[in-house]
Amino acid sequence: MRFSQLYAPTLKEAPADADLISIKLLVRGGFVRKVAAGIYSFLPLGFRVLKKIEDIVRQEMNAIGSQEILMPIIQPAELWHETGRWDDYGPEMMRMQDRHERFFTLGPTHEEIITHLLRNELNSYKQLPVSLYQIAMKYRDEIRPRFGLMRSREFLMKDAYSFHGSWSSLDETYKQFYGAYSKILQRIGLEFLVVEADSGAIGGNESHEFNVLADYGESTLLYCDCGYAASDEKAEYLLQEESQEGAVADLKIVPTPNSRTVDEVSAFLEVTSRDIVKSLIYKGRKGYYMALIRGNEELNESKLKAALEDQTLVMATPQEVLDLLGVPIGFVGPIGLPKEVTIIADHTIKGLKNAVCGALKEGYHYSGVLPGRDFKIDSWHDLKMVTEGDPCPKCGAPMKSAKGIEVGHIFKLGTKYSEKMNGYVTDEKGNSIHYIMGCYGWGVSRTISAIVEQLHDENGIIWPLAVAPFDIIVTAVNIKDPIVSEKSIQLYDILSEAGFEVLLDDREISPGMKFKDADLIGIPVRITLGKKLAQGIVEVKPRTEKKPLEVSIVDGFDTLLEEIKKELSNYRPVSKMEAE
Fold this sequence. Notes:
Layout: H1 21-28, E1 32-36, E2 39-42, H2 44-63, E3 67-68, E4 74-76, H3 77-83, H4 85-88, E5 94-97, E6 103-106, H5 111-119, E7 130-139, E8 154-164, H6 167-188, E9 192-196, E10 206-213, E11 219-223, E12 229-231, E13 252-255, H7 262-269, E14 277-284, E15 287-294, H8 301-308, E16 314-315, H9 318-325, E17 342-346, E18 355-358, E19 364-369, E20 379-381, E21 400-414, H10 416-420, E22 424-426, E23 432-434, E24 436-443, H11 444-454, E25 456-457, E26 460-461, E27 472-476, H12 482-497, E28 502-505, H13 511-521, E29 525-529, E30 537-542, E31 549-552, H14 558-570, H15 576-579
Parallel strand pairs: 3-7, 15-17, 17-20, 27-28, 27-29
Antiparallel strand pairs: 1-2, 4-6, 5-6, 7-8, 8-24, 9-10, 10-21, 11-12, 11-21, 13-19, 14-15, 14-16, 18-19, 21-24, 22-23, 25-26, 29-30, 30-31
Helix pairs in contact: 1-11, 2-6, 2-11
């Protein structure tokens, strides 16, 4: 491809609304263009990268025996009503009505469609296991689409689904996908961390996320040298029940004027934040809940939703709390709570015996609070947001944290969908059983941003060879020079015939602009034909190196070709984190 014919409009400056380095560089490098918030067009360079990632994903799926299909984007609402996810998925779902006023959604995922498809096809255990995948666009109405391709409204995704007659069969396929996802990241050449994860609205009893490590990743990952690793939405903590100092006290109501927050109440009553019961009101499918946690801890809403098996759960608004309890949020507490409000508490509450909580009376709190004596807790759960330094649940050592970008997620769905959608097969004994399912997602377009976030420098993108838009860029410093033009075209033809993907920069612009564009676009190897060509010398510079290597072509291009092969075989971008 000649650069003069390539549609790759590079920019000196990034758009003002670009928030991460990845989208800044992708826009500046002419890979993508924004259409609207969370919606992007892929230009030729971006599309080449996208297709290469897609090909790697497809090859690894085929290698484990998963078969490619294509399902409709438009999905009827009645299928989602069967599973109950029409409400669970919430406002992120792109909903619409047709001319007959029937509801549909633009598919954010395809569990309902694939289960519907297979329940009409599968009837015997002999047909199992089955593994099917597709690579198609997905749609989610993100409330705040941001971070470029990392959180967009329309994105390319590979989603796979497996069907089994036994849990052992699911376990085997789950391991295969785990291995395939690891190979995808290894083939691209990225540092990554696999962690236990929250299953969210997808469901299931086990899931793992594959995260590309990056300074500005939106996921916080907790990990330990013993091998334990989990996202902060899922990470457990080692319960070390700490009994509150002092003796059990009598319950007293005390005035706390103008003290609403944990910090204000602890300062006014001269107690620590650990002595305070933080009471949070949530609204779910079955009514209102009060979640209790110690004042110095943060409640993990993902854990709360999982504990209550309600993905529609949201924090009640101040007005809803006032209407429900007749008191502002700052004075809410579990003592005297209406029976229709269910109390769910974190395990750390068990250690309290002389605590402070809201008195359900404006301007007042209770002191001397003893859980169990003064109020009843309906259920106990791990509700704490784990942070760096908390003890590992496996070995007790302080956990470390890192930032990551989720690119893959695998789930053991079990029978969640087959039960709700009446998916059966007959087993060896002729009994009807619900088939067991797995689900496996990979963000193809999201992977582009993850790569750029991990691999870039002050000059631009540093593409790994496996997904670079071109392998080599031949830079003709002065294309008007007949010798430069002749040798550049000759070299371009030789490299292309040798099987390399080559971009010939034959534009009539300054050498400085050509060099800046080459670094910005991030092609692995640049070959420069400039002033030293008169001496039979060209420069070979890998994108990862500061200085070029001079190679003679006086006796032909054989030596140059061997040097290029060597440079490409040794080419491996190193992230800043790995270098440190």
